[in-house]
Amino acid sequence: MIRSITAFITFVATVLVGQAQTVALFTIAQPPQFQVDAGGTQYYYGSPLTLGGQPTASGGSAAYTFVWEPSEGLDDPTAANPVLLELAAATLFTVTVTDVAINCVRVSEVEVLLSTGLGEQEARTSSVYPNPASTSLRVEAQEVIHSITLRSLAGRSVMLVAHPSASSTRLDIGHVPDGLYLLTITLASGRTVNHKLCKAT
Fold first, then answer.
1. Looking at the structure, do residues 94 and 154 belong to the same domain, yes or no?
2. Cα separation of the two ends of the chain
3. Which of 75, 95, 118, 187 has CB atoms 3.0–4.6 Å from 123's, for a disulfide?
4. Above 50 in pLDDT, residue 4?
């Protein structure tokens, strides 16, 4: 959260008039610093998602214009907090904010990743974290895990862990190239649960 604080600067002016000295004291209110926040990384689950910080812009004169790019999928790319209605792939959104009163421009970015599309019940069945992950990954389930498969979005198998014989395990993924992957957890009951994983170093 960004808090706005108004700063007051006090000046002391000394003026010599003839042999007399006059001291004038005056204070100027300085507006809070102009800042822009596009928010933290978000996940798109297929339902409308609001982008931007809380607030997206603060400080300055508070007379702002907003431009979000790319604009595809957004209900209003000129809003402070547009709503993302559809997303085909992980996207880095950029918001450019202009304080029109002082002609100052600030830019901020937010990454929106695609979720697994799991239903609420499946989401409670297993968890994968951290996500994004860099070197290792923790997989937990509410029953014994039979196997775990990591595939590229093109379907190529990258990693297979068979029969962990436990309801949780740790995967080393440091050797896996950065990118988006599909992690499939096969449970002892025969059920499978998919998670979209972002590998980023």
1. no
2. 27
3. 118
4. no
145 within domain boundaries: yes
Report yes or no on 26 lying in a domain: no
DSSP codes, 23-88: EEEEEEEEPPPPEE---S-EEE-SS-EE-S-TTSEESTTS-EEEEEES-TTBS-TTSSS-EE---S
Give the range of the structural domain holding residue 93, as residue numbers without chain letter: 35-114
Q: Residue 41: which CATH number?
A: 2.60.40.10
Token couple for 72? 């595809």
Within a domain: 25? no
pTM over 0.70: no
Query: Distance of alpha carbon 52 from its chain centroid, rounded?
Result: 9
pLDDT band at 24 (very low <50, low <70, confident <90, very high): low
**155-164 confidence digits (pLDDT tens):** 888 999 887 7
Q: Which residues pair with 91 in a beta bridge?
A: 112
Residue 134's closest CA among 55, 200, 197? 200
DSSP element (H, E) containing 181: strand 179-187
CB 73 within 8 Å of CB 87: yes
Number of domains into which the chain is organized: 2
CB 66 within 8 A of CB 80: yes
Mean pLDDT of the chain: 82
